[in-house]
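I am sending you the entry underneath: sequence plus fold tokens. Let me know what the token row says about the fold:
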Amino acid sequence: MRINGIDHVVLTTASLGRCLDFYGRVLGLECVEEKGRWSVQFGHAKLNIHVRPGEFRPAAASPAPGALDLCLVVEGTLADALAEVEAAGWSIELGIVERNGARGPMRSFYVRDPDGNLIELAGYGAAPRDGRKPSSSDAAVV
């Protein structure tokens, strides 16, 4: 078997409205409702939103709001992304710092969603570890 990506991650929230506002308005992700189930979509992945722990089965053993630590890759410059988050009235947990991601060196800043989940917003500036040429999403550094 060979795993080649993440399709979705499930996020449990205490407030669907506040959650969708953050991921839709602040981060600019597409909020989608299908058959009474909500998700926020980006690229080739999505976050499924659950309002109650384990509302769809099978589920994680102990789902809880605020238990997620997630890193999302930003297109464009990280400075522009940080400015957009601040303009939306959202607090920055930690400003731009050097980190090491799945594709190699990157720079990131951190925010918390309404449930307290830590959301890392990252950009790559150097050639990724996989040997491919950097794309516009890799050039997202200050």
User: Anything to note?
Assistant: The CA atoms of residues 54 and 60 lie 7 Å apart.
